[in-house]
Amino acid sequence: MNQIFASEYFDTIFRYLPTYKDLHSCLLVNKRWASCAIPILWEAPFRVNDKYISSPKVIQTYLAFIPDSTFHKLGYNKRIGLSNSRPPFFNYPSFLKELTYDQFLNAVIAIDFSEDIIIELFKLLAKNDVRLRRLEIYNCLNNYPENLNRKGHLVLPHFYECTSVFSMLTYFNCSYRWPVQRIQLFNVIAKYCHNIKILKVSIYDKNEGIALEGLIRSQRNLKKFSLVNSNNFASFPIQALLNQKHSLGSLALEDMHHSPRLNSAKFFNYGICQLNSSAIDVLAQCKNVNKVKFKHCEGLNSSVFFPLANAFSNLTSLEYSYGTYDIYDSATPIRLLSDIIMTSCNTLKRIALDWYSEAKLDITQLVEIITQQVTKLEYLKIPLYTLEQLALIHRTHNQLRKLEINMNREINFYSALYLFANVPLKNLWFYFLQN
After folding, report:
1. C-alpha to C-alpha distances, 106 to 20, 63, 152, nearest whole angstrom
2. How many CB atoms lie within 10 A of CB 60?
3. How do residues 336-392 score in pLDDT, each as one tens digit?
4. C-alpha span between 227 and 240 (Å, rounded)
5. How many angstroms separate the Cα of 241 from the Cα of each of 304, 383, 392?
6. Which residue intervals define the domain F-box in the entry (predicted)?
């Protein structure tokens, strides 16, 4: 079998294995299988089965590639980390493709290394010609005591100096507020990377906004853009999306609100979603957007956002969510949501509406638009307040594959079940939640 298949076939097969445990089993077969499995395991060492972890053992392994002379130069009597008396079988740092900076820093701080060692680790990545395809730097330093925050501040600029590391990025998440500015990072990526497909960012001052504007304009084919927890300066980068209007397919606005209980970030900007009319006009020109998401955003009822109602005629997915069972949405943008759905009624396949309101909202017209105008709907999630609204939903079950309903307590639960008693379960998965 080893003689029949080339290494690239093993790589393809191994990437379809469901868990990392299966990949670890491949290491035990023979050296060739191991040489195909190791790069996959080490391209995202701070992520296991889609869960992010901070692993000091990864850092210890990386340190084995730093020569003794470097430790002596930094004032250490002996090397730290794994011994390099026997060189590792594989060049583990060279396989790195995905880096979650928070978890990387967590792992380093857990071992209590100095700033100099962290800087040497950055240099190690550049020396091994690492080309990241995914970089996430969010909630940076939020959970550390002040003395550890200081360590993080000191090393960040040295990470930016490793310019080659950023040249192949396709995914960049730099969201939520930092205790330091990110202008240098944005400028470096704008200069050396032009292939970002997915961008998730936050903005807090004018200079950051201008730097991010340059980053967006420098990209060739941006497909997904998310604006997270930003203030009014976010209009600068939004206007730069005009350069990406032919490629942009997904738009998200997230975490712009006044509720302290809706976030866990230490550095959080409390304020409503603030975009000027010029920024909204640019978004309205992005006609190829097919997915829109609003999550925990206040201020969408403003007339500034009305041009978005008729802007997207080819949406396949619309999401709106705000609050939890004890945090209420005081200004649900029913009109905006209704108009967006009506504009894309011939293409929408997924509608996820998930808000919690203290008052009983009149959404019958919204439900009528969904049930009578949307022709290709496959998934629907929605809060309902009356049995009449539930009956309207019932009429559309033939086209739905999945239905989730959050029912107001005024709806009799047994009446709701009776409505759907004859719906074949093999054709529709439905879920009722009553609050």
Report:
1. 22, 16, 10
2. 14
3. 999 999 999 999 999 999 998 888 889 999 999 999 999 999 999 999 998 899 889
4. 13
5. 18, 33, 39
6. 13-46
